[in-house]
Design a protein that fits this description.
By secondary structure, this protein is an alpha/beta fold. It is built from twelve helices and eight strands.
């Protein structure tokens, strides 16, 4: 993946006003460093808005025309194998929109297929993600991410989703990341989402640590945006970009198309 030069970290949301909740950190690789050039809300993308449908359409189109870039997306790109019920990942992605009319129907179908259990994927266990893909706190992100972003891009062959598909030169590549898992790996997982002075200090501490330890470059303006966002979503997008940068440089097991990862997906940390 070393020929990739453009990196995007996307903190995703399935909320009705997703354009205010989604953040995108855009970066460029400079030798062994990642420089974040900007960090913007989803509503700031070309043709976007606060409305979820319009924002996700804009995000999808932004990915479609991005060329040799790689996007780290913080929603599940697959489901536990027992829930998929023998579907290949590509068949699952292509048919997702037709299979579930609502997020609630999607969640209920997952529980039926899993015999009432809330299952995690192999990668969720390994990377210590907080939730199952159809957990109450995550299922809307999973649903809208798969329905409105991943499915259409797979259907019209506009992007490669790794490691479930083969990487193709000249195409945008999409991977799954989890900011919480990356912070746990870096031993920087502290409470940073909130409006108090302590929360702001925690965000600043995380930013300074990853700048110092992880070869991350932020301008004063970008750092101000990231530290100043009390919900922590801007910071999550930067962490997503950092995890994506790690994936570009790592010789990752997931790229070898392990059987489980090729069906369920893989979280890059």
């Amino acid at each position: 993946m070393n020929h990739v030069r453009r990196i995007y970290g996307v903190d995703f949301s399935g909320a009705a006003r997703a354009g205010r909740k989604i953040w995108i950190a855009a970066g460029v690789i400079e030798g062994e460093s990642l420089r974040i050039e900007e960090c913007v809300r989803g509503e700031d993308l070309p043709g976007s808005a606060r409305d979820r449908s319009q924002c996700l359409t804009a995000l999808r189109e932004f990915i479609r025309v991005s060329g040799e870039s790689i996007f780290g997306l913080d929603f599940p790109l697959g489901l536990p194998r027992d829930v998929l019920q023998q579907l290949t990942w590509e068949d699952f992605a292509r048919s997702f929109a037709d299979g579930y009319a609502t997020p609630q129907q999607f969640r209920q179908a997952c529980f039926v297929a899993a015999h009432g259990r809330e299952l995690k994927r192999a990668t969720d266990v390994e990377s210590k993600t907080p939730f199952s893909p159809y957990n109450l706190r995550l299922y809307r992100q999973t649903y809208f991410g798969l329905r409105d972003v991943i499915g259409p891009l797979v259907e019209d062959r506009s992007a490669c989703v790794l490691p479930m598909q083969r990487a193709r030169s000249g195409w945008p590549w999409l991977i799954e990341i989890c900011p919480a898992s990356t912070l746990k790996r870096l031993k920087l997982y502290v409470a940073y989402k909130g409006k108090t002075g302590d929360h702001r200090v925690a965000r600043l501490g995380i930013v300074r640590s990853i700048q110092r330890r992880e070869s991350l470059k932020l301008s004063v303006a970008v750092r101000s945006v990231v530290v100043g966002d009390p919900e922590g979503d801007a910071l999550d997008s930067v962490i997503a970009a950092l995890a994506t940068f790690h994936a570009v440089h790592a010789s990752h097991a997931a790229l070898k198309r392990d059987a489980a990862y090729g069906i369920e997906g893989y979280v890059y940390t």
